[in-house]
Fold each of these.
Amino acid sequence: MKKGYDLIRDAFLNKGTAFTERERKELGLEGLLPPCIEDIETQKERVYRHIEKKISLIDRRKFLMDIFNHNRTLFFYLFREHFKELMPVVGDPVIAESVEQYSEQFTDPQDAVFLSIDEPDQIESILKSAADGRDIRLMVVTDSEGILDRGDWGVNGADVSVEKLMVYTAAAGIDPKCVMPVVLDCGTDNEALLGDYFYLGNHHKRVQKEQYYKFIIKFVETAEKIFPDLYIHFEDFGMSNAIEILEVYKDAFPVFSDGCQGTGLVTLAGILGAMDINKEKLTDQKYMCFGSGIRGICITDIIFKEMRAQGLSETEARKRFYIVGKDGLLFDDMEGLTPVQKPFVRKRSEFKNADELTTLEKAVMAVQPTILIGTSEQQGAFTEDIVKAMASWCEHPVIFSLSSTAEFSEAKAADIINWSHGRAMVATGAPSDPVEYNGITYDIGQLDDALVYPGIGLGAVSVKAKLITDEMLSAAAHALCGFLEIDEYGPAVLPPVEMLIQFSESVAEAVADCAVKQGENRLDTDDAAATVKENIWLPEYLKYENGEFKAVKKQESSEKTDLEKLFK
């Protein structure tokens, strides 16, 4: 049993000024802490007041991370209670600045694990050492090639793995002792980093192809061997590698690729929300994606699978999908088509003017889609003419711009609402203020993958899922729709991110229930919802009794009370 300063330095056990008089005496803490004894609520108020005094968001984040480094329980108690306010500080947009400054301002690894492609034989020993006897059930793993849509940031991407796990715990209640952030240092192609004396990663070009995949294989198989109940979340890999890795492991281990699946799932959830609001059927829609890169194709594939799941044959479903790239509508005779694009190309014989469909506007006019998704990052691509045209052939066109920044958005939410006379169903990748039109306030849903991944992770971990199936992912998307205010005027197609704590449990229950029905659960249970509840960790200090720290036993109704308190 740790005592004295060793105990204070343990972020999982440290209670700071909340150690009782008896605990201080028995654990060698007398005189090592200020004499005042406080509860966690008082500690939280002190920390929060200090945060409020910080002017810049990055300074707020640095202070929060200091709390995280020293007292996990207090950090998550604070984060949960002030989730709406602190989510942008912990995550996007401040996380981008933190990543850029990571090597320059490094002070603490925050339990991240760094594995080098130059030393693959050390993977097993490093993972065991990092776990230190903990039962690791969730890893967020990055190779940092595509950090936050801002490119290659090498080991600086550690901050993203840490941040994602913070959201998993705050939003879904996954025990922070059971998680591990991992960075796969495969080098970097970021010349600024390579030229920076203080850069903390490998100072060589990014390793790819055979050596890279051997490293990935060794890591995944070693991690799954050491931690048999492990769920792996792949984050911010280069999209080509992300697809390859997902294809290799989706039928072997419980894995989730945020780049390939996260944005697609939240886009699906938004479309399903629009269908519920307008009492329409997905299988009646005609889908177009402006953006023929891997991201757009991955999103499209998820929508396609949902149409199949709702009853369309593959042939029928294919007829409803159109992809537009920089050269216009994708046709099967175009040169340079990638394997992921080919399933969604069209034949020129379908159109009388196929050779003229070289722009988005011409493609829209020819196809007449009812759903238009933008992944192009081309500002202003969804013009007034396009929006008005879509509103002319369908009552409620679904128009989503997925750019993570308003600067590169295909269209502003306010413009789409105005051009469609309030009839379009709108969602954006970047946060968007409500839009006033004709006396009605239109709430704009944000296409944030945080809406889905915490609940998916909790559901998978709770029942020890063998795999993450398409059906489980679909269940997660559908579960979000239960939180829509569909009886109001101008409702958003997605619930707000600030409600994440409230609906993550429901998403988890849907995922866990689906896993059990499919026989993909390793934990035997006949009540998935109850199993999920049992796995929710709450930020409460452990009590020291009889020589060990134990969780405080809850009365039968106390868990509901605790959750309600955190939702205020």
Note: Residues 555-568 have pLDDT under 50 and may be disordered.
Amino acid sequence: MADQQLMISGASNDGDDAYVITSLVRDWAARMPALAELKLFKDGREMVDKSSVPQGVDPDAAPVYKLMRQLGVVNLARRISESVTDRQQPNGFRKVDDSSLKDTDADQMAKQCGLTALLRRRLLPDKGDYGCSFAYVNRSTGKRLIHALSPWECWMSDDEDSAIIYTYDDRDGKEIIRLFRLTRNDDGEPDKVYSRVASRESERTVVDPADYSALAKFVDDHNSKGTTWDAGTNWSWESSDSEDFDYALKCESLPIVRLSTIDGLGLFEPYFPTLKRIDREVFDRLCITMMQAFRQRAIKGDLPQTYTEEDPDVINGLAEAGDPIDYSRRFAIGPAALWQLPDGVEIWESQTTDTTGLQNIISSDIKHLAATSGIPLDILSPDVQGSANGAELKRETLKFKVQTMNELDSESIVRMIRMALILDGKRDAVDANFEMVWKSMDTTSSLEQAQACQLLYQSGLLARRTILTHKMGFTAQDVAEDDMNRFADQFNISGQSSKSDAKLVAAVEPATGWDDETQSAVDGLPNADGELVDEGESES
């Protein structure tokens, strides 16, 4: 990087922060055109290329073609992305070294930070759309210690030892880029985490992702001229940041965590050519349909060019002999229009064009898209029929996609929760061994799922709690609540029976243990000999 200009004006040669921030900014800028195009496609705001419009179009027809460019969009990109991310269902955390699946501090921290909402609204969708998303662990207003960042705001190096966050202060008219770095000692072990702030007085130069017109222009300029965002070289370091990132250092990480797809690309990004081809075909079909809604007419024959004394318009005083004839007015279209045709003149009218072949081509390309993307065809197209077993087999690829995404995200989510726990004062969280739990992606009906679980339990292949957690998606709290409800049902049945016919109650202690109130109730239950159970001696 020694041969390139640094974005920090007057940067010292003996420090490498200027080199690192310049490198990150240039990598981020190189990715921006793709981010803009991905944003347009995800929100259904892309349009077919202007070259699709016939050259030399009448200016009066230009708005019509523009409208059809906007309408000729089949938002299959959103379906590809959401078909994966919507099936990523977080289901809490569990301790790896605790077979009882007791609830952990991680669950409480996740609730405190609103992790489920962050994942569902920001982190998972952004990762699916753009190929990556980011979470920033730090204190702010309130108790939420985890903040979601999109690739429009944040970027990170491949080794995850450096990252930047971009913000724009519209009140002061200032662009701000904050650099985060993790440095290592000679043994490769992390020894410091710090940040620095670079800023400049300027209008916002990074394209606003909420401005679709600006995004479209940004993409067009990049495709036609190769232009992209240029950060410039007039940035300056602000005063040193004294913020303590000890909680991140303990986790051997930056306070920024990245969630990413396998290749760092958006889920529909590799299929841009097919998506654009489908949009063009839909545009062509709309053009044909629109043209046929107003049939084209032509006059065949030798028509006079000027009025004569015998013309009705001259006789009625609407024109003078020798004036040029305006046939667009003479043959005006209307429900009460009556045309007078000269001798030997005929009218030609365009006929309907069959668009079935074009629709078949669109359907064929959608099938091609489903095959290459691994998304079941019935998700992308509504007119697909087949057996339930066939649909299940077709969803295997999608299921593997979801499982892979879950595995990739688990470590990142656990790391951000661990940092949040340490930041919240729970220092022992650095050694806590817990993992993310995801709900199973089963596409079977509730009846089929219940029957399968019953078979697994009756055959002895799996224990009841294993089935509840791994097949039914129960959390540790759900299992404990079910145990409590079963105990309550047994207690009520026992209380309704006479003492002579009373059956012994099996009070099975749940995974999370009894609370004081429940333990007191358990102490009063009869044991195997019909005697009351003493305190602390509950039996099953």
Note: The CA atoms of residues 453 and 467 lie 7 Å apart.
Amino acid sequence: MDLTLYHAEISQVLQIIHHLFNIEGAVFDDSAVLVTGSKGYLERKGTAVHKPSIMEVIENDEVIVLRPGEMRSCIGCRFSGNCPATLELLKRIVIDGTPVGVLSFSAFSESAHDRIAEQMDYFERIMVDFSDLLATLIKNAHAGDASVFEKQFTALTSLVSEGLLLVNARGEITASNAPALAMLSGSCLTSIHDFLPPELSAEVLSPQPVQNRSVSLRSDCELTITSVPILGADGSSEGAALRLSAKSGPILSPTRHVDASRMRGSGTQMASVRRRMNKILNSPSSVYISGETGTGKGLLARAIHYESNRRDKPFVIISCANIPETLFESELFGYEGGAFTGALKSGKQGKMELAEGGTLFLDEISEMPMSMQAKLLTVLQDRQFERVGGTRPIPLNTRIISASNADIRQRIAEGRFRADLFYRLNVIDMEMCPLRERLEDLPELLDAFLQKFNHQLGAAVEGFSDEVLALFRRYSWPGNVRQLENIVEYCVNMAEGSIVQPDDLPPSFLRELEQQPLPALKEAEGSVIRDLLNQYGWDSAGKARAAQALGISVRTLYRKMEQAHLTEK
């Protein structure tokens, strides 16, 4: 396919990528010929292309280049050893199962490098969506379907934490994402003229980009506006894409599609969680998830939503620990215009309205102010609510999932949480066990994280030494699965060879391990044996593998099982 025929459409997308996400982009065809690139990309790398690096992406789908100019695929390039890019993300563009080109995101400065490196998952998701957008635009270009861009824009921006708007030449909003609605006034706004001063509206609709302009919407919310024009064939403006960044005031938490496969672990504990989850997927009943920090409570909440019959409706998050008490009610229920000083004239949707038909996830519910607990209880009892300053009841058609890492029953005993509210929230009780209680999942988790970071970092670490695995089994894992993931990422960055050795572990981890109170030797030994038998099986073959892993005979294993009072399952 000749991508040069779609130069205008591709240039438009690259322009939006550059202005909205402050990164440089380029597109190459399936013969490694540059179709077009952003201004910054062309200035720094020019039009000449090192073919092997592009063909590698055509073959492998996605490539992350953390050391441009120093990778194997860079050999022979004129920039080898001295590449102007500091980091590159590349992904192939596929139409009807056939690769037709490659999309590239590039960082040419230290600040751009750090921004992408610190949010790698975020930019990878953005790249996937923009490659799909390009494929759709190219595929439908011959049909002259102008609406396709708006449809794809709406779809891809669901994963973006900034507020994004698409407007036509009259300033009318044709597409928006949830964070934009949260920053503004929900679905009430129809045009940028409703919230931008006339002079700024005119600038946004001109053929020139607008960079980092500040707008005060209300006393608690100031936005920074960046826009890029969408130009027609004659160079005139046909609209604009806008990025809204909140300087202050709460905004909608970004979400991402997660299914049950993301919940790693096939041991008894996780198997039980999955069984219980599958039973209640399509139930409207409230769910309460308990568990220590880092056990995956948020992941379970997302999995319940996206595996349920509500999957096509919003999944909205409120972090109860991060919203000031004075703003909580308006954030949860919304408000009518003129409800208080500084309120938008058109009013504002709350999170409950935004979650209509879907799921509202109340994270860290134990931190909800007492004044809000009574109001939430009434809403759950009556299955309806009103906006602040409103008189019209709004039916509640939203599933409530809540979670906390605190002992909420202790909070009730201390008078810090209402028992009647907890009983309403805790209709279905789910618990995420700490990692130290499901060490049988350790090999699976390690393998998943190893694959992830090998891919992200362009590394080739194959596994962990027996000494490292023994240390992992000894450790108490106060940060649980999230801590394990961070340690694996550190090891992939630092490993000297293909197998992670104790010297490759974080010094802080080793210090904590030394300071960690050790259980009695026999107890620790019994715990390790139990974990290995859960992993390999309690039959004769499993015991043989466990003995081999421990470097002891099967007879010795049986003796140690007897000493530790380990019985057959």
Note: The chain has 22 helices and 21 strands.
